[in-house]
């Protein structure tokens, strides 16, 4: 329990440090259409969003908000991501925001080649899009 609290505090600090100036994003804050454009150009080549969808280079993202990292059955996660998952990493607005801004700040030795989004508005928009597209309606 103590390790989980320390990990959660560290991840919160990472999220704040990794994306200064990016306010907490919710589905209502971002522009989903703009987020879809960002997803299509930056994420779609490796990730699918539909329920039961295949994993590609990256895991399928259906239902990932609120889910523990490294939890898609059958996907081969990097050792670094498996370690973070074991340490209690859960995908929420803060951790997704930090990961989108700089994946290596959240999973330093991770295998994802994406360097991150530098535009805070794009981060908010893509979170709004992902929240809408990866959750049951």
**Major beta sheet summary:** none
Indicate the CATH architecture: Orthogonal Bundle
Oligomer: single chain
Strand fraction equals under 5%
How many strands appear in the DSSP assignment? 0
Question: In CATH, what is the class?
Answer: Mainly Alpha
CATH superfamily heading: Cytochrome c-like domain
Low-confidence stretches: 1-23
Can you walk through the features of this model?
46% of the residues lie in helices and 0% in strands. It has one domain: Orthogonal Bundle (Cytochrome Bc1 Complex, Chain D, domain 2). It is mainly α. It is built from six helices and no strands. It starts with a helix and ends with a helix. Helix 1 (2-18) packs across helix 4, helix 2 (32-42) crosses helix 6 and helix 4 (93-101) crosses helix 6 (120-133). 31% of the residues are buried. The longest helix is centred in the first third of the chain and has 17 residues, at 2-18. It has helices at residues 2-18, 32-42, 79-86, 93-101, 103-106, 120-133.
Question: Which features would summarize this protein structure in a list?
Answer:
6 helices, mainly alpha, 137 residues, disordered N terminus, single chain
